[in-house]
Structure formats: structure tokens, C-alpha cells
Design a protein that fits this description.
It is a single chain. This protein is mostly helical and about 130 residues long. Helix content is about 55%, strand content about 0%. It folds into 2 domains: about 90 residues, Rossmann fold, CATH 3.40.50.10900; about 40 residues, no CATH class. α2 crosses α3.
């Protein structure tokens, strides 16, 4: 609401966030705070002192790793989540790449209308406009 109200009166706003896995319910997360500071530095081009935060983030990560190592089921779950994240973060999973693959699929199978290729949104595909 504050961001929306600020924008309404002409004050530019910015929102940054850090993703913390749901299985890590320890709050606060020094690793997430460090990521936010890194991004903020990048955005505003200012160096922000970190104090003990780097050490705290490393200790926090070590604690999480130790807990996971002691629990086979949790370790397997974390590994599964990391693999899923890596798949989503891969270049092949970009919006553009997914759109291109989907268009390629549609061209191969046609769109169900006289076998003509085209985009799902009705725009002409690379092979030309759709035929009615």
C-alpha cells in the first residue's frame, strides 16, 4: 500500500526481495539479508558495510547444511528442490525459450484449423498468417 500511495503522488518506488526456502523457517535469515544488501548496492551504486553479516550468513548456511545432513529425508527433499530450481533457472526455461518451443510444437501439429501453422494468440506465425 505504501508503494502504491507513493507512486500515486509521483514518488518512484522500488521493491526488492530475497527468496528463502520454506523449509528454513529460522527468521531472520542473514543469508537473505546479505543478498538484499548486495542487490541494493548494485541498484544504488553505494557500498554498504556488512559488519558481521558475512560470518553470520556462513554460520547460518552451515547450520542448515548440518541439519539437512542429519536427516536423510530432508536432504533428499532439499536436493529435489535444488534440482527443480536449477531446471527453472536454466537458459532453456526462459520465457522466450518456452514460447519458441511451444510455437515449434504448434507448427508441428497445426492449430486444428485446416492444418495451418500460427501462434496460439492468433498472430501470424513464422510460416505466415493463419487461414480461416
Amino acid at each position: 500500500m505504501l508503494s502504491h500511495a507513493a507512486e500515486l503522488v509521483g514518488i518512484p518506488t522500488l521493491s526488492i526481495w530475497a527468496s528463502v526456502p520454506h523449509y528454513v523457517h529460522n527468521a531472520p535469515s542473514p543469508k537473505a539479508m546479505l543478498a538484499l544488501i548486495d542487490k541494493l548496492e548494485e541498484i544504488i551504486d553505494v557500498v554498504i558495510p556488512r559488519g558481521d553479516l558475512v560470518t553470520e550468513a556462513e554460520e547460518w548456511q552451515t547450520g542448515i547444511d548440518t541439519l539437512a545432513a542429519d536427516d536423510e529425508e530432508m536432504a533428499a527433499y532439499i536436493n529435489q528442490l535444488e534440482q527443480a530450481r536449477d531446471t527453472v533457472d536454466s537458459p532453456e526455461a526462459s520465457g522466450e525459450a518456452i514460447a519458441q518451443e511451444f510455437e515449434k510444437y504448434l507448427r508441428k501439429r497445426g492449430d486444428g484449423r485446416d492444418g495451418q501453422a500460427g501462434r496460439a494468440d492468433g498472430r501470424p506465425g513464422p510460416d505466415g498468417p493463419r487461414q480461416p
